[in-house]
Amino acid sequence: MILKDRTILVTGAGGGLGREIVLACGRAGAHVILSDFNADLGAESLAALTAAGGSGELRLADLSDPASIAALGASLDGPLHGLINNGAIATGIGGIGFRDIDIAVWDKVMQVNVRGTWLMIRACADALIASGSGRVVNLASDTALWGAPNLLSYTSSKGAIMAMTRSLARELGPDHVGVTAIAPGILTTESTEYVPQARHDLYETGRAVPGKQGTGDVAEVAAFLVSPPAITLTGQTMPVDNGFVFN
């Protein structure tokens, strides 16, 4: 129970990878604060957590709304040991060339994926520092490491997450807060339904270790990275994709 007596906040907790991260943290003994903009999906994740014997609570927040993020941070009434920034826009934004990306779509992706992550860390920073050993885990993507085509807004946002991770690791390090990132490979979730089969095939043939990694595999890494044993890991982006890319 490496997260026993620790409180972990997970954004984008309402489905897919977010729900798996919630469950992994719960199994490790954490009290989980689930954050999502969708009340129904958030409630379903909370129900799954409690049904599995975990402890948690739901607090709604919209990553596109600075006031909503600030309100979530202000609602934290005790030390926060970990923040896992999983919330992001990934659905329905790929498959077209860079010339054809709608400017409004580009701005929305950056607003949620990059600005939303920054504002969430800012809102939670005091509570993380108060814990004495806070951990931030940002969800990046290996698409930003190998340069996936026809996905420029998403890969650019995830590249920014990696840069943010490095800078904040140095800025928050003196306060005993570690900051890392995970770069998952392609996962089978509702957000990857648009991915062309050719890209799935590329991953299948390009992995150093055969087989797919699932959302549960990525979730277990996230849970480890907010645990005390991971305290000396900071500033790093860790691909979790069976060796499709090496960082």
From TrEMBL:
Classify the source by domain of life: Bacteria
Q: Does the keyword Oxidoreductase apply?
A: yes
Q: GO molecular-function annotation terms?
A: oxidoreductase activity
Q: Respond yes or no to whether keyword Oxidoreductase is given for this record.
A: yes
Q: What's in the keyword line of the UniProt record?
A: Oxidoreductase
What InterPro entries does the record point to?
NAD(P)-bd_dom_sf, Sc_DH/Rdtase_CS, SDR_fam
Question: Do you know which Pfam families this protein is assigned to?
Answer: adh_short_C2
The similarity annotation says: Belongs to the short-chain dehydrogenases/reductases (SDR) family.
- Protein's name according to its UniProt entry: SDR family oxidoreductase
- Species of provenance: Pseudooceanicola spongiae
Upper taxonomic lineage: Bacteria, Pseudomonadati, Pseudomonadota, Alphaproteobacteria, Rhodobacterales
